[in-house]
Amino acid sequence: MKTTREPQGNDPTEFSGLVRRVFLRVPSADVAEAHLSEMRLAAGKSVRPVSPLFRHRRRIAVLAAAATFMLAGSGVAVAADTAVPGDSLYGVDRAIERLQLAMARSPESEVNTHLAQAAERLGEIDVLRARGRQDRIGRATSDLARSEDRALASAQKAIGKDFEALHAHVLEMIGKHVTRLGEVRARLEASGHASPNALQALERAMENGAKAAGKVHQGRSGDASGAPGNSGEHRRDDNPGTEMRRGPVAPAGSPRTARGRIRSS
Amino acid sequence: MISESEFAAILAAAARADEDAWRALYEDLSPAVLGYLRAQGAFEPEDLLGEVFVDVVRNIPRFSGNSRKFRSWVFVIAHHRLEQERRSRSRRPSEPAGLDPRPDAAAGDVGEEAIAALEARRVRALLDGLPEGQRSVLLLRILGDLTVAEVARITGRRRGAVKALQRRGLAAVRRAIEAEGVPF
Question: CA nearest B38 in A: which residue?
């Protein structure tokens, strides 16, 4: 990056280098494969005609692809399902959740998927408490909040009485989450080893849950997407709590890379 | 970076939903996009990265241009997704993202990890001290390797404004470093 003047002592290129060193990161292999799977599914949605028969066939193909993905790593998938934030397989767990969401075909199925994933987050929070990994509770409560937000957003896609039913269901579940968070908080406090940050995170999550339910009572909220060509209908899965690891990347242009294969074709 | 001679073939293949082409584009751009999202304090940068590339796949048949234009286009998507996430977070207060240690620090090397963590915190503090416009311009230029014109298009600003934001941002960083009294 060129500048018109170079300051003495604090070269902006050094700052640039530091920024690159700190932030540039190759996604881990697990994350990259999950993203490529999502891209594959997205292409399946966008490039096919929408006749009912073809939509049905496409749904079967998508389910088969997801099942193949899961069966191919089924041992991994089973192990990943019990993973919590900070575990090496947690990224795989979240990737599988994103695929589950990608297969949701209606507001109701989206809501149910988001709520199921919120329940997973609640379970993970309690496991983190039990394992003494209180430093990760704050992040896990935020993941829970995000699943709840997305369940509410998905409910808003429904129409008429379907919306009212879904809406009420999500509010009921958020209320139950708040209760469970209170139980986790009580257990944590009773342990005598509660960290102030973890307690604050749980309290904040409980307050936010109650507020979210209160705000939704005021009416629907919009959520426009600014991305070009994005209809706003596609709901993405909620956030992984993966540790960022430097994934193995073959040298650019080598036959092992996609570029190498395309170049040599 | 994908060379211009390779790019046309890769783009054409990607438009035909060739997975090797997508992988090539992903491998080429994901580190920079992920870096940008992380530096901007995205709550879940890897999640957003996935969303960016899903948008890329969906819209790639409509894209035409060279590799630089494609890079700029991907960062437009990333910038929009980031703004969307911020709007969503402003409606629901949440825990800020933690600072991840540098992945290439030797496992179990506590000293290196500590230095990496301090470095990350320092840079994050310097960037957080900047107004959003200055920060975005600097990060798009540094991490995105984008020109002033490209940054102007992404941020919806005039070129002169981008240059001014860059200049002021660097000056602010310089002042902050001098105030710390600790050079890089």
Answer: A23
